[in-house]
Design goal:
By secondary structure, the chain is α/β, with parallel strands linked by helices. It is built from 11 helices and 9 strands. It has a single domain, classed as Rossmann fold.
Length: 335
């Protein structure tokens, strides 16, 4: 009975989620990654860009430091390293749930289109057990959206270049947030990422050695595969499939794909927690398994909890209580 309920509820929530998303036509997005648009072979242009930067990913995901942090009350803001055509998106917004003792902290990366305050309960719980939580607003989310948009469709869409730029921007923003935490005296830093936040968090962890522990919730593997198969991205699939095959999309989005950087986790003093749902139709179980296989191959110290929920129902009763308890135990033990 529980399985039938989960499947039914997942389908309902996926349908509701889909209605709110805008359909953006397929676009190579060359201008968004500072390439001169060309009618000759935009596919090859973008692919050359990806190959160049993936081979140099340490530089690609290395931010320029900033001193322009503004912290008041529980609100932190600073300029993003990547300046986009949307002024609101160029200022990183964070909510900080700070403890009295500055020792342990986590970066919290929400899921795609997460509403305001969705993770406040978890952040407050972590603060209560002595872990500061810095919840970052992802690119084009909440106050970083253009005023005419009601959703965060500019982060993930069929505009291939802009999606690449947005994921890169999120990683750079997080690394600047870690700089700020370090300047405030935090020595033990981890992250919690959910869904798209876990994909960004994986890429971040691969390039940021100051992260010592990572909780990756609803984790996939290859970025393109997840979008291609997800119930949450049917509108994106429809636009892209008119132009590209899955193999071609894998190549283009490899520069932002988690498992492309799994080898960077080898020989790291890193602890990883993966929580997934056996009824997940967004990050399908076989994609999570591929991510787990990559961690295994690189001899990463991880633990994996696969529950009988789906993607959306992980945040519902009773699973959200199981998750909160699991996160508290894991972070207190590993941070």
């Amino acid at each position: 009975m529980l399985s039938n309920y989960v499947k039914r509820r997942e389908a309902e929530l996926a349908s509701e989620d889909e209605l709110a998303k805008a359909t953006i036509p397929m676009d190579w997005g060359l201008d968004t990654v500072a390439l001169e648009p060309s009618t000759a072979n935009p596919h090859q242009q973008l692919l050359n860009y990806v190959i160049h930067h993936q081979d140099r990913s340490e530089l690609y995901y290395q931010p320029q430091p900033t001193t322009e942090y503004s912290y008041s009350g529980s609100h932190l803001s600073f300029p993003s390293n990547l300046q986009t055509e949307t002024p609101e998106n160029n200022i990183v917004q964070c909510q900080v749930f700070e403890t009295r003792t500055r020792s342990r902290a986590v970066i919290l990366l929400p899921h795609w289109n997460a509403e305001n305050n969705r993770y406040n309960g978890l952040a407050s719980l972590l603060r209560a057990v002595g872990i500061t939580t810095l919840q970052i607003t992802l690119p084009y989310h909440q106050g970083r959206r253009p005023p005419e948009m009601s959703n965060a469709d500019y982060l993930l869409s069929a505009n291939l270049g802009r999606t690449i730029r947005s994921v890169r921007q999120a990683v750079l923003d997080c690394r600047l947030a870690i700089d700020w935490l370090e300047q405030r005296g935090y020595q033990h830093i981890g992250l919690v990422g959910s869904s798209l936040g876990s994909a960004i968090g994986f890429v971040l962890t691969a390039h940021e050695r100051r992260i010592k522990t990572a909780a990756l919730l609803l984790m996939g593997s290859d970025f393109a595969d997840t979008v291609w198969m997800s119930d949450a991205t049917r509108h994106i699939q429809a636009a892209i499939r008119q132009v590209l095959t899955l193999a071609e999309l894998r190549q283009i989005w490899s520069v932002i794909s988690p498992t492309a950087y799994a080898a960077k986790l080898r020989n790291r003093p890193l602890r990883v927690l993966v929580v997934s749902g056996r009824e997940d139709r967004v990050c399908h179980p076989h994609l999570t398994q591929q991510g787990i296989d990559a961690l295994t191959q690189e001899e990463v110290d991880y633990e994996w909890k696969a529950w009988s929920c789906g993607h959306y129902t992980l945040g519902a009763v009773p699973y959200k209580f199981y998750l909160a308890a699991q996160l508290v135990r894991f972070l207190r033990r590993t941070l």
